[in-house]
Amino acid sequence: MSDMAHLKIWRGESPHAGRWERHEVPFEPGQSVLDGLRWIRANTDPSLAIRFSCINANACKECMIELDGKTVYACTARLEPREMTLAPLSNKPLVRDLVTEIAPPAERFLK
Fold first, then answer.
1. pTM of this prediction?
2. Cα separation of 14 and 51, whole Å?
3. Structural contact between residues 89 and 56, judged by C-beta atoms closer than 8 angstroms
4. d(C-alpha 83, C-alpha 22), whole Å
5. Helix ranges, 1-111 (H)
């Protein structure tokens, strides 16, 4: 039987009215936290909001989250076979789940 990573993930559209959800992800050495989040979207919960672009567009900073209270890039932070707490950036406006508004106002698309 393989090891499992236990991801405790913040879900919701408000920092005050959301909830924590727990997901188990099959663990293999060398995986990133982003790999774990993509596994969740592909296999158990396609509604999980995450942002990344490094895989397709070679852009960076899209996948920043808080992992156990520290700001990290989900694509470089290593997945571990333990409980890991994933939250949106606390100093940025929350869009939904782990997605925050990280672009400066002048660089955002107007609605």
1. 0.87
2. 17
3. no
4. 9
5. 33-43, 54-57
